[in-house]
Design goal:
By secondary structure, the protein is an all-alpha fold. The chain has four helices and no strands. It has one domain.
């Protein structure tokens, strides 16, 4: 039986989420299906670009967090239980 692989399978392969057996089958499919190979190469490029993204919070967001932590204790005292 011939297994047909989807773009989802290729994405799992790019992120190393396939079993060794499945990886071999996907590699065979990539060699025989030019459209799948094109998608694979684009997915690799996109993964590399995404890995370079650096995000930083705005200064006022950091300040809000610092102000909140200054005004609220880290470990508030436990409430006494009435028995």
């Amino acid at each position: 039986m011939i297994k047909t692989f989807t773009q989802d399978d290729v994405v799992r392969y790019v992120y190393e989420e396939t079993s060794p057996e499945e990886s071999l089958l996907i590699e065979d499919a990539l060699m025989s299906e030019p459209d799948l190979m094109t998608f694979f190469l684009e997915a690799l490029e996109l993964r590399a670009l995404m890995n370079r993204i650096e995000r930083q919070p705005r200064a006022n967001t950091v300040q809000s967090i610092l102000n909140y932590s200054k005004n609220h204790p880290a470990n508030p005292p436990a409430k006494l239980r009435h028995t």
